[in-house]
Every structure is written in structure tokens, then in C-alpha cells.
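ASSEMBLY PREDICTION REQUEST
Request ID: AP-0331
Submitted by: J.K., bench scientist
Number of chains: two
Total residues: 729
Priority: normal
Notes: Please return the full assembly, not individual chains.
Input sequences:
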Amino acid sequence: MTKTKLTALMGASTLGLLLTASAVNAQQSGYLSFLIDNGPQSVAVAEAWVAAYTAKNPDVTIDIEVRPGGGEGDNIVKTRLATGAMADVFFYNSGSLFQAINPVQNLLPLTDEPFQANVQDSFKLVVSAGGDVYGAPFAPAMGGGILYNIPIYEELGLDIPKTWDEFMANNEAIKAAGKTAVIQTYADTWSSQLFVLADFYNVMAEVPDFAEKYTANEAKFATTPAALRGFEKLQEVFEGGYLNADFGAATYPDGIRMVATGEGAHYPMLTFGIGAIAETVPDHIQDVGFFAQPGDSADSNGLTTWMPDSIYVAKSTASPDLAKDFVGFVASPEGCDIRNEAVGATGPYMVAGCELPADVPPAVADMLPYFEAGGQNGPALEFLSPVKGPALEQITVEVGSGIRDAASGAALYDEDVRKQAQQLGLAGW
Amino acid sequence: MAASTGRGAIAAQPRKRRSPYSGWFFLPAAIIYSVLFLAPTFASLYFSLTRWTLFDSVFIGLENFAQFFREPFLIQGLVNTVIYAVVTSGLKVVIGMALALLLTSQIVARGYLRSVIFFPVLVSTVGVGITFTVLMHPTQGMINQGLAMIGIAGPGWLVDPKLALYSVALVDVWKGVGLATVIYIAGVVAIPKDYFEAARIDGATKWQNFWYVTLPLMRPATATVITLSFIGGLRTFDLIWAMTRGGPGFASDTVASVIYKQYQAGFYGLSTAGNVVLFVLIAVLVVPLTMVLNRKQGHE
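STATUS: Completed
Returned structure:
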């Protein structure tokens, strides 16, 4: 992928780049605590940022604190915010989970900070509440789709599928060749949701106002055929007998390894998995490609995208200016470069002026056309609606392992969603 | 006290029982008890009636309880909880008793075997759970690989929805049977030798010895083992969570894991309501159970 393409894609302006550069240069002093999750990539990139920032500002000390990820980490973040004991700067989800930490009450608005001039508007939308912007991107954007093993595709002479039927035909061919067609890793239940979540671009292609109606309690997964398709796809893949033998006990690291080494051909996953491949099986990073989850029509093939996690400043911080300066540094082209060096490139950045290295892994290169002019992409449901039911991962495990059929799985999820909407106090539920 | 003894006796009673310590001596304990136990209990009763996000709470009456009983998997969770408690406490009684009889008889390396049986009790439950998750892996686990060597295709211990709950229960028994054994050893050792001598004079067989002497006289031990393991089984969480997280799907969910999931999802009021339900459930099942066990014991 060339730099020119990327620059166009991000809509970068040289002017903005210069502005950020000058804003970051003033020397700072003081102390910050920085709370991140314990993912190896988060730790590596946070350490690189802190090292670079404190090298430029020798009077600043930044302590990195580590918390678990997942639901347990969510609770730690909420508890620390509620008790006023949050670190000065912390990293957390954007989108629907962001709304649940009560940003207006707990976070420092970053709306008027100079670095926001370079941040894409689509990102600002998912970290805004009550008219203010509260976050800056912590990572590149992600796509949800299917990681595939390139050597298997070459060996069997397969083409990248544009429709679900083509995808299933590929699966059949791979199975006939005696290989595992689809990898599923249900021991890490979160990874079971991809066939449903990554199908959302296809839902929107058919029912453009689904997210709106869904939030207003007017559209349901079970009664909207396009939305039900995601669950049906999960069921079809199970019923076709395409899964790895240990799909119930395999974990996400297993899935990453299997798709990279060719133990399986397809792994439905977010593109952040590319970072994990680069880290755990670096010799096979050139063997993994990526395509969007196919829909029913080749014409409307597009990518469901995830906004990156965000970095926030707690309202309780003792040094707001320093905290804002550090956030600005993270969300600058320099911050992106440090990230590229520390953990590699996994997707396009949300900050103008940030560039990907010339030699990105094939899976990243495969993802970029969807973001270019003429490419088709759209945000996942969790960025268009504050409602995401917490039991989806268990339900998708059930549908994906034949315990429950697609229709009743979707109906059960609608039930689960109602609880979340009530908790958020949305009208009409 | 008979009614005819009249007022004088009633009035005399408290003076006789008067404690040599003044009431103030109870104050530190009362404060600790109130702060650490009473206050949270009443706070949780209140919060179970609210929609609570940790940042603020809205009073919504009994809606959380209604929602909790609407939870699609609550009923299955309740059934699973009772199955789990019955299976684990039943096996612990049977196996614990058998091991206790073995380990009180004259066998080689008795002390060593006793410590081996007790060892799993000391190990962290989560550690045990993770270890057995690895051992029970359907294709790479040692258990199924061992079975494969003798030509048996092992089941998916933790990934088959019909088996998962029982697999976890078996591990629970493996881990907890040492404690039951120790209680039973104490029970067996405490039986006076006279009974066995009398039985021998009567010409009792070994089986009759066990059935008519050992078993009835171990009833206090049995009552303790059943009560402890049944309560433990009803509120079981750590092992289930470490091994299956209630899965696959919802197949091994218990009330405690359903509650924890609500908490994880940020439904704090709802999960508090679930804890109140669990508290009531344990009380409703265990109070009559202990009453029955203790009454029988009194009749012996």
C-alpha cells in the first residue's frame, strides 16, 4: 500500500499536521498515572509512548497501571470512576460501552484541544456525549470479517468470495480436500460473535434504518430477515461440518495460530488479530489475508468496521494540562509512528497525517481498499446504537455449536437486548 | 418452666444468669458485626430494589426480581444448581465414607494415603479448574488421549452441553472429598470399641458391623458432611467459572454464575436482586434439611 493512497484515504492536510506538531512541543513537567488493559499489544505500545514522551519531557513521570480486559476490566474502570480513584489518563472502549461510564460526569472534555483538528469526525462521534468530545484514538480502525490462509487458497485455486454462496462453495472445496474450512474458538466466547456482528454491513445494505429502529424498540433481530441472516450463517457453517474438531475448547490464540499456519482456512475475526499473528507466529504473517463477510449480493459487498478504543482523561485528575498534552501526543502522527514501530500496523489510523509503513502485512493491505474512495464500509451496530446485549456471546456459541437454532437464538438475543435498553433508561422499552 | 411456679421464679432467673461483664464489653463486637455484616445486608436489600449503575440508582420496586425470574436461563440455572449440589454432596458422602473406612483400617502407608486424599483441598480452586480444563480438552487433553490409547473415544467433557455440568461436579468431588473423608475419619475413630466387641460376640458379619453399628453412629458426621457440601454446592461459582464460564452456551450455568454475569454486564441492581434470591434459596433448602438431619440424630 502506497503512502499517497493512505494520505488520500485519511483526508490528511499538511497544515493540520504542522499545527499538531507545534502544539506538542512545549516542555511539560509533573506526574501522570496511565491505566491500560493487560493485552500484550496495549502494554507494549503504552510503554513505547511513555518512553518517547518522557524522553522529550524529562521532568515528567508517568506510571503505567495494568488492569484485566473484558467484563472484569469494565468493572474496575467503572468502580474507580465512581469512587474518584481513576488514573489521570486511561484507555477504554468507544461506542456503546463508552456511554455506560457516564462520560459527562466522570471525564474531562477534550473538544477544544488543538489535536482534535486532525482526528476524523467519524471517530469523534463514538466518543461524544452531551455535545462534547471526550476521547482520542488509541489504535487504528478495525474491520470485522474473515482472516484466511493464503497458501490454502493458492493450493486449491480458490477465489476471494463476494457472496455467501461463494463462501460456502469454498468451504465445501476445502472440506473435500480434507482440511478444516472454518476455525471457531468457542472457549473464548467473545470470538463466537463475529459471524453475527460482522454481518452488519449486509444488514444495513438491505435495511438502512435498522440501527435507528432497533434502538427505538421498533426492529428486532428475530423478525428482520436481513438481521436474522447473521445467526443463520453461524448455523449453516456448523451444519456444513466445516468446523475444527475442537471448536468448543479452542481459544483465540489457537485460532490465530491455526489460520496462520494453515491448520484451518477461514477464521472470522477482527483485524486486530493481525497484531497477534505478528507477535505469536511472525513467520506466517505473509500467509494470512482478509476479506469482508460476504452478503447475499456481490454488488453490495462491504466491510463492517470497528472504531478503535480510546484514551480518556478522568475529571478527577490533578494535572489536566499535562494529561491533555500526553493524550495529544498519543493522537499525533508521531504517536502513530511509535505505535507502528512497537506493535506493527493493523489498519488505517483515525488521525490525519498518520501513515502506515510501506510493507504492511497482506491482511492489512486487503482491508485498505474497503476504506478508499469507491470502497464500501460501514460502522458496526455498537457504534450506531448504545444497546448491545451482554449474552450475545453465549447465544452465538449455542447457535454455532448446534445447541439452538438460528431463529430461537435471535429471539433470545432480542430478550437480552431489552434488559440493556432498560438499564440505559432508553425511551420506548 | 411450669406456669404454676409463678412470677417469682421468672424474676429470679435473670439475676442468677447475670454476666460478670458489663454490657459495654459487647460493643466492639456489635460495631464490627453491624458495620461488616448488618449494614451491607440491608444496603443490598435496598439496592436490589433499584436500577443501579454505580454512579446513581433509581428506585424501581420489585422490577429487578421480576426481570431476574424472566431471565431465560434462570430456571435452567436453578435446576443446574440443585443437580450440582445433590450430585456433589451425594458423591462426597459415599466416597468420603468409603475412603474413611479404608484409611482407618490397618493398611500400609496409611498416613501417606491420608495426606494424598486431603491434598486437593489445599490447592486453589481456580488452579484446579484451569488444570482440569487442560486435562479435559477434547483432542489434546491427557484424559482423552489416555482413553484413546485403550481404544475409547473420550467425550467432550466440558464442551458437550449434556456433560459439562457433571464434569465440573466430578472435579468438585475430587477436590472436596478430602474434607469429607477427614470428617468421617474423626467420626469412625470416635465410635467406642465396645460396640464392635458386642457385635462380635453376637456373631455379626462385617457387613452387619457396618450397617448396624458404624453407619448409625456416624450420623453426626454424615449430617455435617451433607450440610457443608450441600451449601457449598448451592453457592458454587469458582470452579464453574474457571472451567466453563457457564457454557457451552448456558448449559452449566448455576444461579451464582447467572448473578455474576449480570454483575459483569453492569446490571448491578439486578445482580444484587439475584444474590437476595440465592440467599433465600439456600435458606429454603438448607434450613429444613438441617432440621431433618438433626432431628434424626436426636432420636438415635
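REVIEWER COMMENTS: The interface with chain B takes residues 71-72, 74-75, 78-79, 81-82, 100, 102, 105-106, 186, 189, 245-246, 248-249, 390-391, 394-395, 397-398, 401, 403-404, 412, 415, 419-420, 422-423, 425 of chain A (CB under 8 Å).
SIGN-OFF: pending second reviewer
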